[in-house]
Protein backbone atom coordinates (compact mmCIF):
# COMPACT_ATOMS: atom_id res chain seq x y z
CA UNK A 1 0.00 0.00 0.00
CA UNK A 2 3.00 2.32 0.22
CA UNK A 3 2.97 3.16 -3.50
CA UNK A 4 -0.22 5.23 -3.16
CA UNK A 5 0.47 8.70 -4.56
CA UNK A 6 0.26 11.52 -2.03
CA UNK A 7 -0.31 14.34 -4.49
CA UNK A 8 -3.61 15.11 -6.18
CA UNK A 9 -5.00 14.41 -8.69
CA UNK A 10 -2.61 11.43 -9.09
CA UNK A 11 -3.91 9.91 -5.88
CA UNK A 12 -7.50 9.91 -7.17
CA UNK A 13 -6.48 8.44 -10.54
CA UNK A 14 -4.72 5.69 -8.57
CA UNK A 15 -7.94 4.93 -6.68
CA UNK A 16 -9.99 5.07 -9.87
CA UNK A 17 -7.72 2.30 -11.22
CA UNK A 18 -8.11 0.26 -8.03
CA UNK A 19 -11.92 0.69 -8.13
CA UNK A 20 -11.88 -0.35 -11.79
CA UNK A 21 -10.21 -3.65 -10.86
CA UNK A 22 -12.71 -4.26 -8.05
CA UNK A 23 -15.60 -3.44 -10.32
CA UNK A 24 -14.35 -5.87 -12.97
CA UNK A 25 -14.48 -8.65 -10.34
CA UNK A 26 -17.93 -7.61 -9.16
CA UNK A 27 -19.24 -7.50 -12.72
CA UNK A 28 -17.88 -10.94 -13.45
CA UNK A 29 -19.56 -12.28 -10.32
CA UNK A 30 -22.85 -10.59 -11.16
CA UNK A 31 -22.62 -11.60 -14.83
CA UNK A 32 -23.64 -8.10 -15.91
CA UNK A 33 -22.49 -4.48 -16.00
CA UNK A 34 -22.95 -2.34 -12.90
CA UNK A 35 -24.92 0.88 -12.93
CA UNK A 36 -25.04 4.18 -11.08
CA UNK A 37 -27.67 6.84 -10.60
CA UNK A 38 -27.07 10.34 -9.24
CA UNK A 39 -29.95 12.42 -7.89
CA UNK A 40 -29.03 16.07 -7.68
CA UNK A 41 -30.82 18.65 -5.57
CA UNK A 42 -30.32 22.40 -5.39
CA UNK A 43 -28.33 24.87 -7.42
CA UNK A 44 -26.05 25.00 -10.48
CA UNK A 45 -23.06 24.43 -8.23
CA UNK A 46 -24.44 21.05 -7.14
CA UNK A 47 -25.40 20.17 -10.71
CA UNK A 48 -21.81 20.88 -11.72
CA UNK A 49 -20.45 18.82 -8.82
CA UNK A 50 -22.58 15.90 -10.00
CA UNK A 51 -20.95 16.13 -13.42
CA UNK A 52 -17.60 15.65 -11.70
CA UNK A 53 -18.91 12.62 -9.76
CA UNK A 54 -20.25 11.14 -13.00
CA UNK A 55 -16.89 11.67 -14.70
CA UNK A 56 -15.20 9.63 -11.97
CA UNK A 57 -17.79 6.83 -12.03
CA UNK A 58 -17.70 6.55 -15.83
CA UNK A 59 -13.94 6.21 -15.68
CA UNK A 60 -14.22 3.48 -13.06
CA UNK A 61 -16.55 1.56 -15.38
CA UNK A 62 -20.03 2.07 -13.97
CA UNK A 63 -22.81 2.79 -16.46
CA UNK A 64 -25.20 5.64 -15.81
CA UNK A 65 -28.90 4.86 -15.51
CA UNK A 66 -32.00 6.97 -14.94
CA UNK A 67 -33.38 4.43 -12.49
CA UNK A 68 -32.77 4.54 -8.77
CA UNK A 69 -32.67 0.74 -8.85
CA UNK A 70 -28.96 1.01 -9.62
CA UNK A 71 -25.91 -0.64 -8.07
CA UNK A 72 -24.67 2.69 -6.77
CA UNK A 73 -27.05 5.54 -5.98
CA UNK A 74 -25.74 8.95 -4.97
CA UNK A 75 -27.87 11.73 -3.49
CA UNK A 76 -26.11 15.06 -3.96
CA UNK A 77 -28.02 17.10 -1.40
CA UNK A 78 -28.99 20.73 -0.84
CA UNK A 79 -29.82 22.39 2.46
CA UNK A 80 -30.65 25.97 1.54
CA UNK A 81 -34.22 25.44 2.71
CA UNK A 82 -35.41 23.22 5.51
CA UNK A 83 -37.87 21.21 3.37
CA UNK A 84 -34.92 19.87 1.34
CA UNK A 85 -33.81 18.00 4.47
CA UNK A 86 -37.24 16.45 4.99
CA UNK A 87 -37.37 15.43 1.34
CA UNK A 88 -34.07 13.58 1.62
CA UNK A 89 -35.20 11.60 4.66
CA UNK A 90 -38.36 10.71 2.70
CA UNK A 91 -36.27 9.46 -0.23
CA UNK A 92 -34.09 7.38 2.04
CA UNK A 93 -37.16 5.77 3.62
CA UNK A 94 -38.20 4.72 0.13
CA UNK A 95 -34.70 3.43 -0.68
CA UNK A 96 -35.05 0.81 2.06
CA UNK A 97 -37.41 -1.21 -0.12
CA UNK A 98 -35.23 -0.66 -3.20
CA UNK A 99 -32.13 -1.89 -1.37
CA UNK A 100 -34.02 -4.88 -0.01
CA UNK A 101 -34.28 -6.13 -3.63
CA UNK A 102 -30.53 -5.65 -4.25
CA UNK A 103 -28.62 -5.92 -0.95
CA UNK A 104 -25.28 -5.32 -2.70
CA UNK A 105 -26.41 -1.90 -3.82
CA UNK A 106 -24.41 1.02 -2.41
CA UNK A 107 -26.08 4.23 -1.25
CA UNK A 108 -23.96 7.33 -1.04
CA UNK A 109 -24.84 10.80 0.30
CA UNK A 110 -22.89 13.97 -0.36
CA UNK A 111 -23.35 17.71 -0.79
CA UNK A 112 -24.34 20.61 1.44
CA UNK A 113 -26.64 18.79 3.85
CA UNK A 114 -23.81 16.50 4.90
CA UNK A 115 -21.91 19.50 6.32
CA UNK A 116 -24.49 19.80 9.11
CA UNK A 117 -23.45 17.77 12.16
CA UNK A 118 -27.04 17.02 13.24
CA UNK A 119 -27.71 15.45 9.84
CA UNK A 120 -24.76 13.11 10.23
CA UNK A 121 -25.99 12.17 13.70
CA UNK A 122 -29.46 11.38 12.34
CA UNK A 123 -28.03 9.35 9.47
CA UNK A 124 -25.75 7.38 11.78
CA UNK A 125 -28.59 6.59 14.15
CA UNK A 126 -31.50 5.97 11.80
CA UNK A 127 -30.31 5.30 8.27
CA UNK A 128 -27.99 2.32 8.42
CA UNK A 129 -28.62 1.64 4.74
CA UNK A 130 -26.28 4.50 3.78
CA UNK A 131 -22.82 3.20 2.81
CA UNK A 132 -20.76 6.29 2.03
CA UNK A 133 -21.07 9.88 3.26
CA UNK A 134 -18.92 12.83 2.28
CA UNK A 135 -19.33 16.60 2.18
CA UNK A 136 -18.72 19.56 -0.09
CA UNK A 137 -14.97 19.82 0.55
CA UNK A 138 -13.98 16.35 -0.61
CA UNK A 139 -16.19 15.44 -3.56
CA UNK A 140 -12.99 14.92 -5.54
CA UNK A 141 -12.31 11.91 -3.27
CA UNK A 142 -15.24 9.79 -4.46
CA UNK A 143 -12.97 7.08 -5.88
CA UNK A 144 -10.86 6.86 -2.73
CA UNK A 145 -13.90 6.63 -0.44
CA UNK A 146 -15.63 4.15 -2.74
CA UNK A 147 -12.52 2.00 -2.77
CA UNK A 148 -12.39 2.10 1.02
CA UNK A 149 -16.01 0.90 1.15
CA UNK A 150 -15.41 -1.87 -1.39
CA UNK A 151 -12.22 -2.93 0.38
CA UNK A 152 -13.43 -2.95 4.00
CA UNK A 153 -17.16 -3.52 3.60
CA UNK A 154 -17.65 -0.99 6.40
CA UNK A 155 -19.52 2.27 6.20
CA UNK A 156 -17.33 5.24 5.22
CA UNK A 157 -18.02 8.74 6.58
CA UNK A 158 -15.68 11.62 5.78
CA UNK A 159 -16.93 15.16 6.22
CA UNK A 160 -14.35 17.95 6.43
CA UNK A 161 -14.98 21.37 7.93
CA UNK A 162 -12.94 23.13 5.27
CA UNK A 163 -10.77 22.33 2.27
CA UNK A 164 -7.03 22.80 2.06
CA UNK A 165 -6.81 22.38 -1.68
CA UNK A 166 -8.75 22.69 -4.90
CA UNK A 167 -8.06 19.63 -6.99
CA UNK A 168 -7.71 20.29 -10.71
CA UNK A 169 -7.83 18.03 -13.74
CA UNK A 170 -10.27 15.38 -12.63
CA UNK A 171 -12.67 13.89 -15.17
CA UNK A 172 -16.15 15.27 -15.66
CA UNK A 173 -19.15 14.13 -17.64
CA UNK A 174 -21.17 16.96 -19.03
CA UNK A 175 -24.93 16.73 -19.35
CA UNK A 176 -24.78 18.77 -22.54
CA UNK A 177 -21.99 18.57 -25.11
CA UNK A 178 -22.50 22.18 -26.17
CA UNK A 179 -22.70 24.01 -22.83
CA UNK A 180 -20.77 23.70 -19.61
CA UNK A 181 -20.33 25.24 -16.19
CA UNK A 182 -16.88 26.27 -15.01
CA UNK A 183 -16.22 26.99 -11.33
CA UNK A 184 -14.29 30.19 -10.85
CA UNK A 185 -14.59 30.15 -7.07
CA UNK A 186 -15.91 28.08 -4.23
CA UNK A 187 -17.59 29.03 -0.96
CA UNK A 188 -19.00 32.32 0.24
CA UNK A 189 -17.89 35.00 2.71
CA UNK A 190 -20.99 37.15 2.65
CA UNK A 191 -22.92 35.69 5.55
CA UNK A 192 -26.35 36.92 4.60
CA UNK A 193 -28.11 36.32 7.91
CA UNK A 194 -30.69 33.85 6.55
CA UNK A 195 -28.27 31.75 4.53
CA UNK A 196 -26.55 28.52 5.41
CA UNK A 197 -24.27 28.42 2.37
CA UNK A 198 -21.20 30.02 4.02
CA UNK A 199 -21.38 27.36 6.74
CA UNK A 200 -21.75 24.37 4.43
CA UNK A 201 -19.63 25.51 1.47
CA UNK A 202 -16.96 27.21 3.55
CA UNK A 203 -14.86 30.32 2.99
CA UNK A 204 -14.50 31.92 -0.39
CA UNK A 205 -11.65 30.55 -2.47
CA UNK A 206 -10.93 31.42 -6.11
CA UNK A 207 -9.36 29.23 -8.74
CA UNK A 208 -6.22 30.39 -10.50
CA UNK A 209 -7.00 32.30 -13.68
CA UNK A 210 -4.82 30.03 -15.82
CA UNK A 211 -6.67 26.92 -14.58
CA UNK A 212 -10.00 28.54 -15.46
CA UNK A 213 -8.82 29.63 -18.91
CA UNK A 214 -7.27 26.24 -19.62
CA UNK A 215 -10.53 24.49 -18.73
CA UNK A 216 -12.46 26.91 -20.96
CA UNK A 217 -10.06 26.30 -23.87
CA UNK A 218 -10.40 22.56 -23.42
CA UNK A 219 -14.20 22.86 -23.43
CA UNK A 220 -14.22 25.04 -26.54
CA UNK A 221 -11.94 22.54 -28.30
CA UNK A 222 -14.42 19.83 -27.33
CA UNK A 223 -17.22 21.74 -29.07
CA UNK A 224 -18.73 23.72 -26.19
CA UNK A 225 -20.54 26.84 -27.41
CA UNK A 226 -21.69 28.32 -24.10
CA UNK A 227 -19.74 28.54 -20.86
CA UNK A 228 -21.30 29.51 -17.54
CA UNK A 229 -18.82 30.89 -14.99
CA UNK A 230 -19.96 29.74 -11.57
CA UNK A 231 -19.49 31.20 -8.10
CA UNK A 232 -21.68 32.17 -5.13
CA UNK A 233 -20.66 35.76 -5.87
CA UNK A 234 -18.57 36.06 -9.01
CA UNK A 235 -17.97 39.78 -8.35
CA UNK A 236 -15.61 38.98 -5.50
CA UNK A 237 -13.44 36.70 -7.67
CA UNK A 238 -9.86 36.79 -6.41
CA UNK A 239 -10.62 38.95 -3.36
CA UNK A 240 -9.50 36.40 -0.80
CA UNK A 241 -6.51 35.06 -2.77
CA UNK A 242 -3.57 37.49 -2.55
CA UNK A 243 -1.84 35.72 -5.45
CA UNK A 244 -4.74 36.51 -7.82
CA UNK A 245 -4.51 40.05 -9.18
CA UNK A 246 -7.24 39.64 -11.79
CA UNK A 247 -10.72 41.09 -11.15
CA UNK A 248 -13.92 39.41 -12.30
CA UNK A 249 -14.50 41.89 -15.17
CA UNK A 250 -10.94 41.20 -16.39
CA UNK A 251 -11.46 37.45 -16.16
CA UNK A 252 -14.80 37.69 -17.95
CA UNK A 253 -13.21 39.73 -20.74
CA UNK A 254 -10.47 37.12 -21.19
CA UNK A 255 -12.99 34.27 -21.35
CA UNK A 256 -15.21 36.26 -23.70
CA UNK A 257 -12.27 36.77 -26.06
CA UNK A 258 -11.14 33.14 -26.20
CA UNK A 259 -10.97 32.04 -29.85
CA UNK A 260 -13.98 29.93 -30.78
CA UNK A 261 -16.23 30.84 -27.86
CA UNK A 262 -19.82 31.69 -28.82
CA UNK A 263 -21.36 32.60 -25.47
CA UNK A 264 -20.37 33.17 -21.87
CA UNK A 265 -22.70 33.62 -18.88
CA UNK A 266 -22.07 33.99 -15.18
CA UNK A 267 -23.95 33.24 -12.00
CA UNK A 268 -24.42 34.69 -9.36
CA UNK A 269 -23.67 38.37 -9.12
CA UNK A 270 -24.19 40.11 -5.75
CA UNK A 271 -25.63 43.64 -6.13
CA UNK A 272 -23.31 45.04 -3.46
CA UNK A 273 -20.21 44.81 -5.67
CA UNK A 274 -21.33 44.65 -9.30
CA UNK A 275 -18.96 47.20 -10.76
CA UNK A 276 -19.23 49.65 -13.64
CA UNK A 277 -16.23 47.83 -15.15
CA UNK A 278 -18.33 44.68 -15.33
CA UNK A 279 -21.14 46.53 -17.09
CA UNK A 280 -18.57 47.91 -19.57
CA UNK A 281 -17.09 44.46 -20.23
CA UNK A 282 -20.56 43.05 -20.95
CA UNK A 283 -21.36 46.00 -23.22
CA UNK A 284 -18.11 45.66 -25.18
CA UNK A 285 -18.25 41.87 -25.68
CA UNK A 286 -20.93 40.39 -27.93
CA UNK A 287 -20.16 36.93 -26.60
CA UNK A 288 -21.26 37.85 -23.06
CA UNK A 289 -24.94 36.98 -22.75
CA UNK A 290 -27.41 39.77 -22.13
CA UNK A 291 -28.62 38.47 -18.82
CA UNK A 292 -27.75 39.29 -15.22
CA UNK A 293 -29.18 37.36 -12.32
CA UNK A 294 -29.21 39.98 -9.58
CA UNK A 295 -30.80 38.63 -6.40
CA UNK A 296 -32.56 41.46 -4.57
CA UNK A 297 -34.05 39.33 -1.72
CA UNK A 298 -36.18 42.26 -0.45
CA UNK A 299 -37.16 45.79 -1.41
CA UNK A 300 -37.02 47.10 2.14
CA UNK A 301 -33.77 48.77 3.20
CA UNK A 302 -34.58 47.89 6.79
CA UNK A 303 -34.80 44.19 5.91
CA UNK A 304 -31.79 44.33 3.58
CA UNK A 305 -29.79 45.64 6.54
CA UNK A 306 -31.13 42.87 8.77
CA UNK A 307 -30.21 40.40 6.05
CA UNK A 308 -26.66 41.84 5.91
CA UNK A 309 -26.96 42.42 2.16
CA UNK A 310 -24.94 45.64 2.21
CA UNK A 311 -27.05 47.62 -0.27
CA UNK A 312 -30.20 49.70 0.03
CA UNK A 313 -33.36 49.81 -2.03
CA UNK A 314 -32.11 53.06 -3.55
CA UNK A 315 -28.59 51.84 -4.36
CA UNK A 316 -30.04 48.68 -5.95
CA UNK A 317 -32.36 50.76 -8.13
CA UNK A 318 -29.47 53.05 -9.07
CA UNK A 319 -27.43 49.99 -10.09
CA UNK A 320 -30.29 48.74 -12.26
CA UNK A 321 -30.41 52.18 -13.93
CA UNK A 322 -26.67 52.07 -14.62
CA UNK A 323 -26.98 48.58 -16.12
CA UNK A 324 -29.94 49.49 -18.33
CA UNK A 325 -28.33 52.71 -19.50
CA UNK A 326 -25.38 50.83 -21.01
CA UNK A 327 -27.20 47.59 -21.78
CA UNK A 328 -30.69 48.46 -23.00
CA UNK A 329 -32.91 45.41 -23.39
CA UNK A 330 -30.78 43.26 -21.06
CA UNK A 331 -32.67 40.66 -19.11
CA UNK A 332 -32.63 41.03 -15.33
CA UNK A 333 -33.78 38.19 -13.10
CA UNK A 334 -33.81 37.89 -9.34
CA UNK A 335 -34.39 35.93 -6.15
CA UNK A 336 -36.82 37.21 -3.51
CA UNK A 337 -37.44 35.96 0.02
CA UNK A 338 -40.86 36.49 1.61
CA UNK A 339 -41.39 36.38 5.36
CA UNK A 340 -37.92 37.22 6.66
CA UNK A 341 -38.20 37.85 10.45
CA UNK A 342 -39.56 41.31 11.21
CA UNK A 343 -41.09 41.78 7.72
CA UNK A 344 -44.01 44.18 8.13
CA UNK A 345 -46.70 44.89 5.54
CA UNK A 346 -44.81 48.09 4.78
CA UNK A 347 -41.56 46.17 4.15
CA UNK A 348 -43.44 43.78 1.90
CA UNK A 349 -44.95 46.70 -0.04
CA UNK A 350 -41.37 47.88 -0.62
CA UNK A 351 -40.63 44.48 -2.17
CA UNK A 352 -43.68 44.76 -4.43
CA UNK A 353 -42.57 48.29 -5.29
CA UNK A 354 -39.04 47.25 -6.32
CA UNK A 355 -40.53 44.46 -8.45
CA UNK A 356 -42.80 47.02 -10.16
CA UNK A 357 -39.90 49.36 -10.75
CA UNK A 358 -37.25 46.93 -11.94
CA UNK A 359 -39.66 44.77 -13.94
CA UNK A 360 -37.76 41.47 -13.91
CA UNK A 361 -37.97 38.99 -16.77
CA UNK A 362 -38.08 36.25 -14.18
CA UNK A 363 -38.11 36.12 -10.37
CA UNK A 364 -37.55 33.10 -8.16
CA UNK A 365 -39.64 33.58 -5.05
CA UNK A 366 -38.86 31.77 -1.81
CA UNK A 367 -40.63 31.51 1.50
CA UNK A 368 -38.16 32.31 4.27
CA UNK A 369 -36.87 29.10 5.77
CA UNK A 370 -35.33 29.18 9.23
CA UNK A 371 -31.91 27.53 9.11
CA UNK A 372 -30.49 26.53 12.46
CA UNK A 373 -27.10 28.12 13.03
CA UNK A 374 -27.76 31.24 10.95
CA UNK A 375 -28.20 34.58 12.79
CA UNK A 376 -31.75 35.15 11.48
CA UNK A 377 -32.96 31.90 13.04
CA UNK A 378 -32.75 33.67 16.43
CA UNK A 379 -34.31 36.94 15.30
CA UNK A 380 -37.57 37.94 17.02
CA UNK A 381 -40.77 38.46 15.02
CA UNK A 382 -40.72 35.31 12.94
CA UNK A 383 -43.67 35.71 10.57
CA UNK A 384 -46.72 33.44 10.76
CA UNK A 385 -47.41 30.97 7.96
CA UNK A 386 -50.75 32.51 6.91
CA UNK A 387 -49.30 36.03 6.60
CA UNK A 388 -46.41 34.63 4.55
CA UNK A 389 -48.76 32.70 2.28
CA UNK A 390 -50.85 35.79 1.58
CA UNK A 391 -47.76 37.86 0.75
CA UNK A 392 -46.21 35.08 -1.29
CA UNK A 393 -49.37 34.79 -3.43
CA UNK A 394 -49.51 38.54 -4.00
CA UNK A 395 -45.83 38.61 -4.95
CA UNK A 396 -46.21 35.69 -7.33
CA UNK A 397 -49.17 37.34 -9.09
CA UNK A 398 -47.10 40.47 -9.50
CA UNK A 399 -43.86 38.88 -10.75
CA UNK A 400 -45.73 36.62 -13.18
CA UNK A 401 -47.74 39.47 -14.67
CA UNK A 402 -44.66 41.65 -15.09
CA UNK A 403 -42.52 38.84 -16.54
CA UNK A 404 -45.20 38.18 -19.15
CA UNK A 405 -45.48 41.87 -20.04
CA UNK A 406 -41.71 42.30 -20.20
CA UNK A 407 -40.97 39.25 -22.32
CA UNK A 408 -43.45 40.53 -24.88
CA UNK A 409 -40.80 43.14 -25.82
CA UNK A 410 -39.05 40.42 -27.83
CA UNK A 411 -42.17 39.49 -29.81
CA UNK A 412 -41.51 39.63 -33.56
CA UNK A 413 -37.75 39.98 -33.17
CA UNK A 414 -35.16 37.55 -34.52
CA UNK A 415 -32.77 36.24 -31.86
CA UNK A 416 -29.91 33.79 -31.90
CA UNK A 417 -31.04 30.65 -30.11
CA UNK A 418 -28.77 27.92 -28.78
CA UNK A 419 -30.80 24.77 -29.38
CA UNK A 420 -30.64 22.55 -26.29
CA UNK A 421 -33.08 19.66 -26.53
CA UNK A 422 -36.10 18.17 -28.24
CA UNK A 423 -39.35 19.57 -26.88
CA UNK A 424 -40.67 17.26 -24.19
CA UNK A 425 -44.32 17.53 -25.22
CA UNK A 426 -44.15 17.88 -28.98
CA UNK A 427 -41.55 15.92 -30.95
CA UNK A 428 -41.81 18.26 -33.94
CA UNK A 429 -40.38 21.10 -31.84
CA UNK A 430 -36.95 21.80 -30.39
CA UNK A 431 -36.20 24.02 -27.40
CA UNK A 432 -33.43 26.53 -26.90
CA UNK A 433 -32.46 29.79 -25.25
CA UNK A 434 -31.65 33.29 -26.38
CA UNK A 435 -28.73 35.29 -25.05
CA UNK A 436 -31.22 36.78 -22.56
CA UNK A 437 -31.94 33.24 -21.32
CA UNK A 438 -35.46 33.32 -22.74
CA UNK A 439 -36.81 29.88 -23.65
CA UNK A 440 -38.03 29.39 -27.22
CA UNK A 441 -39.78 26.36 -28.73
CA UNK A 442 -39.82 26.15 -32.53
CA UNK A 443 -40.32 23.57 -35.29
CA UNK A 444 -37.02 21.92 -36.12
CA UNK A 445 -35.14 18.66 -36.22
CA UNK A 446 -32.93 17.33 -33.45
CA UNK A 447 -29.93 17.86 -35.79
CA UNK A 448 -30.11 21.47 -34.66
CA UNK A 449 -29.24 20.56 -31.06
CA UNK A 450 -26.02 22.28 -30.04
CA UNK A 451 -26.23 24.86 -32.84
CA UNK A 452 -26.94 28.56 -32.57
CA UNK A 453 -29.60 29.51 -35.10
CA UNK A 454 -31.60 32.69 -35.78
CA UNK A 455 -35.22 32.30 -34.68
CA UNK A 456 -38.14 34.70 -35.02
CA UNK A 457 -39.97 34.93 -31.69
CA UNK A 458 -43.54 34.83 -32.92
CA UNK A 459 -45.77 34.37 -29.94
CA UNK A 460 -45.13 35.10 -26.27
CA UNK A 461 -46.79 32.49 -24.06
CA UNK A 462 -46.04 34.06 -20.71
CA UNK A 463 -42.71 32.52 -19.73
CA UNK A 464 -41.61 31.31 -23.14
CA UNK A 465 -41.94 31.90 -26.86
CA UNK A 466 -43.13 29.92 -29.82
CA UNK A 467 -40.81 30.75 -32.67
CA UNK A 468 -39.89 29.94 -36.24
CA UNK A 469 -36.43 29.45 -37.66
CA UNK A 470 -35.43 32.52 -39.67
CA UNK A 471 -33.95 30.90 -42.76
N1 LIG B 1 -34.85 30.82 3.14
C1 LIG B 1 -35.40 31.10 1.96
N2 LIG B 1 -34.68 31.33 0.86
C2 LIG B 1 -33.35 31.28 0.96
N3 LIG B 1 -32.37 31.46 0.05
C3 LIG B 1 -31.19 31.28 0.66
N4 LIG B 1 -31.36 30.98 1.96
C4 LIG B 1 -32.71 30.98 2.18
C5 LIG B 1 -33.53 30.76 3.31
N5 LIG B 1 -33.01 30.47 4.51
C6 LIG B 1 -32.64 31.84 -1.33
C7 LIG B 1 -32.05 33.22 -1.65
C8 LIG B 1 -30.91 32.87 -2.55
C9 LIG B 1 -31.41 31.63 -3.24
C10 LIG B 1 -30.36 30.80 -3.89
O1 LIG B 1 -32.03 30.91 -2.19
O2 LIG B 1 -33.02 33.97 -2.34
O3 LIG B 1 -30.60 33.91 -3.47
FE1 LIG C 1 -25.96 32.85 0.76
FE2 LIG C 1 -25.64 35.51 0.66
FE3 LIG C 1 -23.55 33.86 0.11
FE4 LIG C 1 -25.61 34.04 -1.61
S1 LIG C 1 -24.19 35.73 -1.06
S2 LIG C 1 -24.62 32.15 -0.89
S3 LIG C 1 -27.37 34.34 -0.25
S4 LIG C 1 -24.60 34.09 2.08
Descriptive key words:
471 residues; alpha/beta; five-stranded mixed β-barrel; 13 helices; 19 strands; 37% helix; binds 5'-deoxyadenosine; binds iron/sulfur cluster
Question: Could you write a compact summary of the structure shown?
Answer:
The protein has 471 residues and is of the alpha/beta class. The protein has 13 helices and 19 strands.
Q: For the terminal residues, how far apart are their CA atoms? A: 63 Å
Note the beta-strand portion: 15-25%
Instruction: Note poorly predicted spans.
Output: none
Give the rounded overall mean pLDDT. Answer: 96
Shape: globular
Radius of gyration, taken over Cα atoms and rounded to an integer in Å: 23 Å
Question: Layout of SSEs?
Answer:
Elements: H1 10-30, E1 35-40, H2 44-60, E2 63-64, E3 72-77, H3 82-101, E4 106-111, H4 117-126, E5 132-134, H5 142-152, E6 156-158, E7 179-183, E8 185-186, H6 197-201, E9 205-206, H7 209-221, E10 226-230, H8 248-256, E11 263-267, H9 276-284, E12 291-293, H10 301-306, H11 313-326, E13 331-338, H12 345-358, E14 362-367, H13 385-407, E15 414-422, E16 429-433, E17 439-443, E18 452-460, E19 464-469
Parallel strand pairs: 1-2, 1-3, 3-4, 4-5, 5-6, 7-10, 10-11, 12-13, 13-14, 17-19
Antiparallel strand pairs: 8-9, 15-16, 15-18, 16-17, 18-19
Helix pairs in contact: 1-2, 1-5, 8-9, 12-13
Amino acid sequence: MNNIPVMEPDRQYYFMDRCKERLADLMEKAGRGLTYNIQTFGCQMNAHDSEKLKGILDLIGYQETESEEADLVIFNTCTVRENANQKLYGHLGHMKSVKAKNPDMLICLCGCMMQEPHVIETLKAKYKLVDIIFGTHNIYKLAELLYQRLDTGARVIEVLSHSEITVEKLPQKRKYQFKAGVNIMYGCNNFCTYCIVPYVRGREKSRAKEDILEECRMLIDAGVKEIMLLGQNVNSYGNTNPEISTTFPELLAEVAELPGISRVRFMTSHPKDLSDELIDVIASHETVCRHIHLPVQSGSTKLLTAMNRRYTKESYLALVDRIREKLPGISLTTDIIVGFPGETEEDFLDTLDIVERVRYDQAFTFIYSKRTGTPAADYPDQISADVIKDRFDRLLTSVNRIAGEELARFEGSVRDVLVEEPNRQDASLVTGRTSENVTVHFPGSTDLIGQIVPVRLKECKGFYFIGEQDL
